[in-house]
Amino acid sequence: MSWKRSENVGFPQIWHTFEAKDPDSGQSVKYRVQDLPEDRYDEVLDLMKYIFLKEEILAVAFDHHTDPRERKMDFWSNVLNKKLSVVCFKEGSDEICGFNILEVIQKEDKPKELPDQKVLDITKVLNFVKEKSDIFNRYGVEEYLYGVGLLIIPKYRGLGLSTEILRARIPLGKALGFKVTSTAFTGTASQKAASRAGFIEDFSILYGDLANKEPFVTVPNVASETLKFMSLRIE
């Protein structure tokens, strides 16, 4: 059954506020994490295309960022249309500081057809850590909130925004009825941010070991040692 946001949960709304340094002034200012407005979808898709794909560990390892991007844009566009994703703004500004694209993983989901080998390899790796984490049985749920893209705009990095954006999943998840949220964190920085936000490790594996055991995928040119699947109970 395809997930749909309840009409009883207003959209868009603010889920989390916090204070952090303003990279322009150096002063402490307020930030907010809110639902991503529909009129900013195209901007986020461009940021995914031109920044995220050039930096994300697995996308770079498999040279995924040089492929034709229409399929990726279609996937992310469909996910955005579920009205789950969140964005971070600085108070008094509509400049995007960072965002997290979110979707729902359901126990009854069926495997999707994969268009090419690079996508297949990445999906094999992600599905492997999902299966080893066994979220449905571990947490006793039929569905969970899942992150498919966390990006902080370069200007706003080093301010702790990743951790705060991840924390926003708690009030968002509560309002929408989720009991757990999970993500395959591919890099060291995002893993540390997740830990600070309260996520715990369900499963981890060295990238080098992926070639020697299931799923038997060699991950070349990787800039991190470990892939971690991490979760946060929403209570």
UniProtKB/TrEMBL annotation:
Gene3D superfamilies: 3.40.630.30. InterPro entries: Acyl_CoA_acyltransferase (IPR016181). It comes from the Eukaryota. One of its GO terms (molecular function) is N-acetyltransferase activity. This is N-acetyltransferase domain-containing protein. It comes from Nyssomyia neivai.
